[in-house]
């Protein structure tokens, strides 16, 4: 397992999709990792992804891997 820098620099620039007013925000960190947080709770927890993990996450989202199951 790769060790990750879990520190979020205070001047990180958080970006939000223009399509999702209350969705998530991402920041490309100086460590090379990507932070993901809830836009409604910016002081809450942050998920940290390595570049490879981020690519896999985005590919899964585009492929519908995280869609809710239909009942």
From TrEMBL:
Domain DUF397 stretches: 12-62
For this protein, the record's InterPro entries field holds: DUF397
Protein name stated in the entry: DUF397 domain-containing protein
Q: Name one Pfam family in it.
A: DUF397
Q: Which domain of life is it from?
A: Bacteria
